[in-house]
Amino acid sequence: MINYAGEEIKINGCLGCLFAEHKFSLPCGIAYENDKFILSQDFELPIQGFLVVSPKKHIETFGELTSSERIEIFEIVSKTIEILKRNNICERFDVIFEEKINKHFHIWIMPRNKWMEEFGGNIICNIGKIFKYAKTNMRTKENFNKIDEITKLLKSELKK
Ligand SMILES: [Zn+2]
Question: Which domains does the chain have, with CATH numbers?
Answer without folding.
Answer: 15-152 (3.30.428.10)
